[in-house]
Amino acid sequence: MEVLQLIVNGLMAGTILAVPAIGLTAIFAVLRFTNFALASHMTIGAFAGFVANVTFGLPAVASLAFAFLIAGLVGVISDELVLKPFRRSGFITTAIGSIALTIALENLVRFIFGNQLRGYDLPIQRDWSFSGIRVSPQQVENFVVAVIVMAMLFAFLAFTRTGKSMRAVADNPMLAAIKGINANVVARLVSFVAMGLAGLGGMLIGLDTTIDPLIGFKTILQIFAAAVVGGLGSIPGAVVGALVVGVGEELSLLVLSPAYRTAVGFIAILIVLTFRPRGILGQRAY
Amino acid sequence: MLKTTRRKVLKGAAALATTAALPKGAYAQGEPIKIGILTPLTGAGGNDGPRMLKAMTAVFEEVNKQGGVLGRKIETVVEDDQTNPEAAVRAARKLIEVNKVPMILGTWASAVTAAVAPVCWESKTFLMTVSGADSITLLPHQGFLIRTQPTSKLQATAHGEFLWAQGGRKVAIIGIQAPFAMANKEHLEATLKPKGGEIVSHIIYEKDKPTYRSEIDQMMRGKPDYIYTNGYAPDTVVLLRDMFRAGINLPKFAQSYAVPQPTLDTIPAEVSANVFTGQPSADIESPAYKLAAARIGEKEPDGYVSQATDWASLAVLTIAKAKAVSGVAMKDNVRKICQGSGQKVYSAVEGLKVLAEGKEINYEGASGPCDFTDIGDILGCRFRYMHVVKGKLEFLKLV
């Protein structure tokens, strides 16, 4: 029973991690660098959702949509103004530039909203219990939102012309250029969707906890671990990686003190990369 | 138009070299005394750090208005420790190596102080802190550290007495991974066990996790009747939410810094029901406390603000007593102005006047008497307990 409860807890935690992890991996697939600015876009999404929910009084789902939109827009602007010029200098410069960008954006949020903890204006419900297994309604809602968003993303990539263009650029940028796909448009689109997902993920985590300017920074390592374990560049891989990290962390409690939980994600990276250097599902985008 | 020539550059370099070679005392009188402030302006201590900074600044401004100390104004150099040991060490090095401060006031989290203290004693920089972990003053700090916060032992013993008085017999501890975690458990156990109480579970969790559901499940296996939380605000809020969701209605104790009113305001009132908080209390009846309250325009400054007030006052008075500005002078003279049989004074300005008359002083602070042991601990203090009622902190008792 205990194991089952831990698995349920892990799946819930992993699904939420999966949303921003998809964003991180999508950017890597198309633009070929690890965008650590994802952390600040999670923060921006969490605060955009806060404004929508607390200031404008919007319900949770509408606030989540607002979080996606604002984080996505900031993502496009910051990529265009800051990271795009870096890309000419290579992967490492751009990744380091993204760390600098994330710190700058987090501090901008701190400047505007201050440093104190904040919470959404939503009631907290007691857990549901099914034959001794407890599930939080909030976590189920988060789980459902995450699954719907991921399903929409997969459908977008599989069935729309734009989605196919994104996959084409991810798989073979040169061939995609010869075919007349505008790499700039795809870059903007992927930045919008990926950072929108980061913003959504930031608010989903905030719904379960509280929000402060460091909300993204605190989880970025776990998200990075999830994306790498699944196969950096593979969108289904990000989901698998997030679930592995989420469930792995919970199951580790059977043998380890909770004080070592984070180590599990990184031990998972070591094990997976030893046997599958490209992650569980490899690096194919889709 | 200014023109840079080889001759000008050489002259400038020579002037610079001469200035650098001058002993400290040869600087023109009136050059400001730089004091390093390293409080958490962000991170888990972000609620307390800015208020502590404000309290210190208010004391220095008051002193500066009266002409400063040793004929020099006080100038603060402020850095954010981010409640993060790595960032704090970087900031401390900058304060010491670039700004050349003789002392640093303000570290808050025990893990931060444990990281910053060696940087300080190695460079003979004096450090004042509110960190409570027993291990802090047991470090080989050679006298370059004092703290105005009671030790974990003093605190946990007082908390144990409180829990017992509240009816806590089977206590579960759930706390963050921190230097004070194990010590707190031992001291709570040592207080409860002789009375017939026991610690039924002890969970140490990692910070910054979005949920602690599994940790709470583990804790509840001990079937406690009272829960002692031992974390910081961000993680304690997650704990309270998860405990509410799990239907746990037991009384819960938390350190006051883990559930300040602004944090309580972020969660529904039913989530914080049955929460009690405790903190080392300021000496609310002392004249120093009243002066501190008036100085910063607050009705009831808390323990941290009071301690920060005392650091600033101790710094100024020690400099005046030593007639020197250095970490060594601080170490050698701080106890000469705050304990002993000198005339009692309650503020830096008052103390400066008495010292100027050639008399000995004994500074009695806003946080307490400010009497320190050889290793830098305070000798004792009061504790203030609060109860959360409908989401608001209400005074319960002072012990």
Account of the protein in words:
The complex is a heterodimer of chains A (286) and B (399). Chain A has 286 residues and is an all-alpha fold. Chain A has a domain at 19-215. In chain A, 74% of the residues lie in helices and 2% in strands. Chain A contains eleven helices and two strands. In chain A, a hairpin with a 2-residue loop joins β1 and β2 (133-135). In chain A, α3 packs across α4 (91-113). Helices cover 42% and strands 20% of the residues of chain B. Chain B is built from 14 helices and 14 strands. Chain A binds chain B through residues 2, 5-6, 9, 12-13, 16, 110, 115-119, 123-127, 134, 136, 138-139, 205, 208-210, 212-214, 218-219, 250, 253, 257-262, and chain B through 41-43, 46-47, 50, 177, 203-206, 208-215, 217-218, 233-234, 237-238, 241, 244-247, 262-263, 266-268, 270-271.
- Whole-angstrom Rg of chain B: 23 Å
Please give the share of residues in helix of chain A.
Answer: over 70%
N-to-C CA distance of chain B: 71 Å
Report strand order across the widest sheet of chain A: 1-2
Termini gap of chain A: 36 Å
Number of helices of chain A: 11
Write the layout of secondary structure elements.
The complex is a heterodimer of chains A (286) and B (399).
Chain A: H1 2-31, H2 38-55, H3 60-87, H4 91-113, E1 128-130, E2 133-135, H5 137-159, H6 161-171, H7 173-178, H8 183-208, H9 215-230, H10 235-251, H11 261-275
Antiparallel strand pairs in A: 1-2
Chain B: H1 6-21, E1 33-39, H2 49-65, E2 74-80, H3 85-98, E3 103-107, H4 110-122, E4 126-129, H5 134-138, E5 145-147, H6 152-165, E6 170-176, H7 181-192, E7 198-205, H8 213-220, E8 226-230, H9 233-245, E9 252-255, H10 261-264, E10 275-281, H11 287-296, H12 303-322, H13 327-338, E11 343-345, H14 348-356, E12 361-363, E13 382-389, E14 392-398
Parallel strand pairs in B: 1-2, 1-3, 3-4, 4-5, 6-7, 6-8, 8-9, 9-10, 11-12
Antiparallel strand pairs in B: 10-13, 13-14
